[in-house]
Design brief:
Pfam families: HTH_3. About 55% of the residues lie in helices and about 15% in strands. It is built from 5 helices and 2 strands; from the N terminus they run E-H-H-H-H-H-E.
Amino acid sequence: MIKGQITNNIRRLRFDHDEMTQKQLAEKTGVSRQTIVAIEKAKYSPSLELAFQIAHVFGCSLGDVFSYEIGD
């Protein structure tokens, strides 16, 4: 089985959007701040629905927020 990892640009996108806080992003997507922290640190992979919601908040595509890297 091929192992991969989801990475993200959430921290940079938050900074680029008037330094949005993790709490503000959490409120806009209906999750806890801790969930946003875990996603940013790649400790938790969001559901597809949450991933689309996060992209929508930033006004960009899913691929601009998340990427999938295949390891060896």
